[in-house]
Amino acid sequence: MPAVEATPSRAERAEPRVVPLDVTVLAGGPGAERDVSIQSGQAVAVALTGLGHRVSLCDIVPTDLSPLDRPADFVFIALHGEFGEDGTVQAELDARRIPYCGSGAAASRLAMDKAASKRRLERADVPTPPYAVFDRTNRPTPCLEPGPPVVVKPVASGSSVDTCIARDRDHARRAIGAVVDKYGAALMERYVSGPELTVGILGDRALPVCEIRTKREFYDYQAKYLDDDTQYLFDLELPPALLTHVQQLGLAAHRALGCRAFSRVDVMVDAKTLRPYVLEVNTIPGFTSHSLLPKAAQRVGISFEQLVQRIIELSMAEG
Predict the structure, then answer these.
(1) Are residues 300 and 154 in the same domain?
(2) Cα–Cα dist 107/257, whole Å
């Protein structure tokens, strides 16, 4: 299979020719990622305004959907986590027949549910770490499988909120219990030790693979949004064939979940075997100064403004 890295055409590298639209940018939301969402929304709104669109940046929550009453040609969703990334807003926009960016309600709902999405990836022969799911009726037993070290996280959340690495069974059981008590369900998956990679998807192509390096135990919320010493590397000391394979897996995961227009796929590579494993697909990745999709686009000469315009065009074409 040929390389799938996105190399922009001359037209893509040029400043986009924009037909001005009335665009509502949705940001905020009710979840733990609210602050990051507001940052993403502000960045998108500035870019769209610079392109000549008529933009309204709206803070939206489930109890107040009035921002959707504003007449708009297009809605740019910059909501992360629950409500904005789990298909809820998408379903409401579908009902109102308002075009919006990114994946539809069903794909958004599937990608947000880490357990359901892993089952779908398995059916599509996309490798993902072994896992188990726990809820209030299914508490962990003394003999946990997969055994530690494991990663414990909420089944439906993002930005590594309430995620930890448990290196013994007691820690794993306590972590699972805490996540179940707070969220109702917990995902436990085998910890993969090795390079942490991410690949952005734009249209039907994969952007360059980025390696994330942090001084923390893993790429947690602090490392994602607050630390200034987290490194994002594109000149990687990994075999070119492996990087091509990671891009292919990113595209395969994106397609397996039914995503459209854009996404970001997170991948771990086993340091011993160099085998990659897909962790999850993010249907509304961040648009902040720390965010990875814009960094990958910039790597191939696509500016932030060009990226958001391309997302609008792709979403309207595929919607």
Answers:
(1) no
(2) 6
